[in-house]
Design brief:
It is a single chain. Helix 9 packs parallel to helix 12 and helix 10 crosses helix 11. By secondary structure, the protein is α/β, with parallel strands linked by helices. It has 12 helices and 11 strands. It is globular. The chain has a 5-stranded mixed β-sheet with strand order 3-2-1-4-9. The chain has a 3-stranded mixed β-sheet with strand order 5-11-7.
C-alpha cells in the first residue's frame, strides 16, 4: 500500500513461462532500497503454462504491492500496455523476468531521470552466464564486432543514446508518444525510443543503473533470437519510413550476397569462387575477433566463439532478409517461428554481484 506522503513508482513487468527465472527476478525487485517513493509491481502474465502464474499469485497474496494481470496477447508489447493501463504511479519503470536488478536499481533510475531531464533513462546490458555455452555467448554479446558497436552492450558507456534496455519514464510521456506497438513481437523498446527521439525527446544511458540479463543457453536459441530481432526491425523501418543504420544492413548484405553468389555459382564458376573468397574473409575476421574476445574473457571459450559470432550475424542477416520478403514484398503475416519464444525454461542460477 502506498504512503499518502510519498510519490508512487509503477514497475511494469511482462512475463510468460519464466518459472526458471521469475523467483530471483521478483526477489531482486522486492529488495529495492528506496526511501523517497513507494512501489507498485504490476506483472502481466501471458497465459503461462509452466507454473509461473501460480507462483505469481502466491507472491501477490503475500505482498500488497504486487498485482498480477492477464495478458491474453502473450507477447511483451501487449503485456506492457496491459500493465501501463493499470499503473497509478507518476513514474513508470519497465522490467523483464529474465533479469536481476541491483538493490538500488529504482533509486538510480529516479536520480538519473531527475539529473538528466531525459525522457527515458536506463542502464547498459550487463549479463550473467553459468554453463560453457552461456559464457561463450556472454563474451560475444559484449563484443563490438558481434553487435555493430551498439552502445547498450557496452557496460561502461554513459551518455545520450538512441535506445536503452527496459526504461524509466514519467507516465505523462506516454500521453505524448503513445504506448508500445502491439504489432511488434520484438524491437518494441527500440521502436518506442525512436518515437521519443522523433518527438524531440532524449534517451540517456547510465552505468549507475545496474541489472543483469541472463543470456540464452544454446546456439540454436541464440540464432533464433537474433533472427527475430532482424525480422522485426524491418517492420519498424517500414512503419517509420526511415533508412536502416549500417549495423542493421551489414549482416543482411553479407547473407544476401553469399546466397546470391552460391546460386549463381551453379551456372557461373567465377561466382562460386567469389562466394568462397567472401566466406574465407568472413571466417578469418570471425577467428580474429574470437581470439581477441577469448583473450579478454576465457581462453577455453575460443573453440566455440566463432559459432556464437556466426549466430549473431547470420541469424540477424537472415531474419532481416526474410522480413523484407514478408513485410515489403509479399505483405504477408509473420510465420510462427518469428513469433514464438526462443528461450527455454532454465534452472535458477545467478552470477550477479
Amino acid at each position: 500500500m502506498s504512503s499518502p506522503t510519498l510519490p508512487l513508482v509503477s514497475i511494469i513487468l511482462p512475463c510468460r513461462n519464466e518459472s526458471g527465472r521469475i523467483k530471483e527476478c521478483l526477489d531482486s525487485i522486492l529488495r529495492q532500497e528506496l526511501t523517497e517513493a513507494d512501489l507498485e509491481i504490476i506483472i502481466a502474465d501471458g497465459v503461462s503454462t509452466d507454473g509461473t502464474r501460480e507462483y505469481l499469485q502466491q507472491v501477490a497474496a503475500q505482498s500488497s504491492s504486487v498485482r498480477v494481470l492477464n495478458n491474453p496477447g502473450r507477447i511483451v508489447s501487449t503485456g506492457l500496455n496491459a500493465a501501463l493501463r493499470e499503473a497509478r504511479g507518476q513514474v513508470i519503470i519497465r522490467m523483464d523476468a529474465h533479469t536481476i536488478y541491483a538493490p538500488d536499481y529504482v533509486k538510480q533510475c529516479l536520480q538519473v531521470l531527475r539529473e538528466t531531464g531525459a525522457d527515458n533513462v536506463g542502464g547498459p546490458m550487463r549479463t550473467t552466464a553459468v554453463s560453457y555455452k552461456e559464457r561463450a555467448i556472454r563474451a560475444v554479446f559484449h563484443s563490438p564486432f558481434a553487435v555493430g558497436g551498439a552502445r547498450s552492450h557496452d557496460p561502461d558507456y554513459e551518455g545520450y543514446v538512441d535506445t536503452v534496455i527496459y526504461g524509466c519514464w514519467h507516465k505523462s510521456l506516454f500521453d505524448r508518444v503513445g504506448d508500445f506497438d502491439e504489432d511488434l513481437v520484438r524491437n518494441q523498446d527500440d521502436e518506442h525510443n525512436l518515437r521519443i527521439l522523433r518527438s524531440g525527446g532524449k534517451v540517456y544511458q547510465s552505468p549507475r543503473i545496474r541489472s543483469w540479463y541472463h543470456v540464452r543457453d544454446s546456439f540454436t536459441a541464440l540464432f533464433r533470437q537474433y533472427m527475430q530481432y532482424g525480422y522485426w526491425k524491418v517492420l519498424v523501418i517500414r512503419n517509420h519510413r526511415l533508412p536502416a543504420s549500417i549495423r542493421h544492413l551489414v549482416p543482411a548484405a553479407f547473407v544476401g550476397s553469399l546466397a546470391l553468389l552460391l546460386m549463381l555459382g551453379w551456372f557461373w564458376q567465377p561466382a562460386l569462387w567469389s562466394a568462397l573468397i567472401l566466406t574465407g574473409v568472413y571466417l578469418a575476421t570471425v577467428l580474429a575477433a574470437s581470439v581477441i574476445t577469448a583473450s579478454r574473457n576465457e581462453w577455453e571459450l575460443l573453440p566455440v566463439l566463432p559459432v556464437a559470432f556466426c549466430c549473431f550475424h547470420l541469424g540477424y542477416g537472415y531474419g532481416f532478409l526474410r522480413g523484407i520478403l514478408d513485410f515489403l514484398v509479399l505483405h504477408k503475416a509473420p510465420a510462427a517461428k518469428f513469433v514464438q519464444l526462443t528461450r527455454k525454461r532454465q534452472p535458477v542460477s545467478s552470477e550477479a554481484p
